[in-house]
Amino acid sequence: MVPTISDQTDLFRKKLLGKTGKISDKTLEMHLGIYAVQVRRAKELLAAVEKEDLPEEGALPGSLFRANRLDLSYCLCAARSHELYFQILGGSGAAPQGKLREWIDRDFGSLGRFLRDLRATALASDSWAWSCLDPASGRLFNLLGDPRGGLPLWGGLPLIALDMEDHAFLLDFGQDRAAYLDSLLGQIDWEAVASRLPLL
Description:
Elements: H1 9-16, H2 25-51, H3 63-87, H4 98-108, H5 111-123, E1 128-134, E2 139-145, E3 157-163, H6 170-173, H7 177-185, H8 190-194
Antiparallel strand pairs: 1-2, 1-3
Helix pairs in contact: 1-2, 2-3, 5-7
């Protein structure tokens, strides 16, 4: 089995160091370290799953089989969410334009309402919040994931990922999750977000 993810730590470090406002380089380095561990663990689990014997027909999957599959699911979801989180950081704070802005205005009424909805969704989460495009309905949604699960929308295309776990903000903001979130929302790279939209 070929690993489906690669470690992009160096790419994100070059893009973001010194460019994340009140989110310090120290926090960023720690956060990138967590991401690198998730990628490494996912690769290890992919290799283990490839070699693993499947449970015999009619037998309940054993605890090791279950543990490996759960851990693989978590590591892949966490790594992908972290990749998106780092991709959309470091923006200038300029408002989104073009098709992305049209869809935000269409589905939320205004950029301000979209950001308030995303902020409230993130504050309600202990783990992740995402802005996603639902291909079935063709509209944008802000969704949260608790506990640290994967994107809770089958087929949804995540456009923004906001990490709301303690490691993302404690060093710089203490327990002030709202201040962290305000800093985060003020530096979204809207061009990076728009680049994820399907070509229509």
